[in-house]
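C-alpha cells for chain A. Residues wanted.
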C-alpha cells in the first residue's frame, strides 16, 4: 500500500500541473 500511495500522489500532481496552463489560456481567450 505504501508504494501505491506515492505513485497515486505523483499522478494527481502531474494532472494538477497540466490543468493550470489550460485554465490560464481560457482566461486569456475570454479577456
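Reply:
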Amino acid at each position: 500500500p505504501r508504494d501505491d500511495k506515492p505513485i497515486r500522489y505523483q499522478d494527481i500532481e502531474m494532472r494538477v500541473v497540466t490543468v493550470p496552463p489550460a485554465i490560464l489560456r481560457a482566461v486569456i481567450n475570454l479577456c
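The chain has one helix and no strands. The chain has a mean pLDDT of 72.
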